[in-house]
Amino acid sequence: MTVQTLLKMGDPRLLRVAQPVQQFNTPQLQALLQDMRDTMLHANGAGLAAPQIGVDLQVVIFGSDEPNPRYPDAPVVPRTVLINPTLTPLDEVQEEGWEGCLSVPGLRGVVPRFKRLRYQGFDEMGSAIDRTVEGFHARVVQHECDHLMGVLYPMRVKDFSQFGFTEVLFPGLDDADD
Ligand code: NI
């Protein structure tokens, strides 16, 4: 088990456009994914992108198969490894929702996201993934894939009256690690 250091906002490595994975089902890719799983689990994250541990590759993981303590009321998102993703919004409809990020600890903000989208990519074996999702699942995918384009959620906040410290906005929420 290797919990890696999470890069925090301000680190220029979080602003890079990540490189596509060229080879699947390799020991290097499996090791990266294990580090990402360990790091996400340790921090109670809803998702994690490789750039957040300093790895410049288009790899994200998200989902838990069980409720996340940081988002106790959120619908369960299936445990997913998504590599070299492409996102296609199904229409123009956006909805607002609260987000946090392990690279922006202690803060939350309201971010508009496409409500419905299709996402495509590959798992760690190179098998194709093609899903059409909405709501929280769609939000998580957009947040994580933004990391691959060097975008952190505060860069998408429109109304900074809905941005602040988690302990103030949501007193009592079990959120010690973020
Ligand atoms: Ni994030």
Multimer state: single chain
Tell me what the CATH architecture is. Alpha-Beta Complex
Q: What's the CATH class, please?
A: Alpha Beta
Number of helices: 3
Entry keywords:
27% strand, 3-stranded antiparallel beta sheet, Peptide Deformylase, 19% helix, 5-stranded antiparallel beta sheet, alpha+beta, binds nickel (II) ion, 3 helices, globular, 178 residues, single chain
Detailed description of the structure:
The chain has 178 residues and is α+β, with helices and mostly antiparallel strands. It has a single domain (12-169), classed as Peptide deformylase (Peptide Deformylase), CATH 3.90.45. Helices cover 19% and strands 27% of the residues. It contains 3 helices and 8 strands. It has a 5-stranded antiparallel β-sheet, with helices on both faces. A 3-stranded antiparallel β-sheet has the order 4-5-8. The longest helix has 16 residues, at 27-42. The radius of gyration is 15 Å and the shape is globular. Residues 101-103, 143, 147 line the site of nickel (II) ion.
What's the gist of this structure?
With 178 residues, the protein is α+β, with helices and mostly antiparallel strands.
Topology, element by element:
Blueprint: H1 27-42, E1 47-49, E2 59-62, E3 80-89, E4 94-99, E5 107-114, E6 116-122, E7 128-134, H2 135-147, E8 163-165, H3 166-169
Antiparallel strand pairs: 1-2, 2-3, 3-6, 4-5, 5-8, 6-7
